[in-house]
């Protein structure tokens, strides 16, 4: 799932939303996407994360292909 905000959670309620997504390993969160210049359509999103040992998340480079 991708979102063009800093978090999937509301500003004042950070933890519960993340826990719901993290319990189900079928969904990978991608936060902070810059999508304002992307035209509506069907795309394939490829996310290339940095492998960080012992980390719960990492910065990624996203590639959007129409």
Automatic annotation (TrEMBL):
It is found in: Secreted, Extracellular space, Extracellular matrix. Its main location: secreted. Keywords: Extracellular matrix, Secreted. It comes from the Eukaryota. InterPro entries: KFase/CYL, KFase_sf. GO terms for biological process: L-tryptophan catabolic process to kynurenine. One of its GO terms (molecular function) is arylformamidase activity. Belongs to the Cyclase 1 superfamily. This is Cyclase family protein. It comes from Aegilops tauschii subsp. strangulata (Goatgrass).
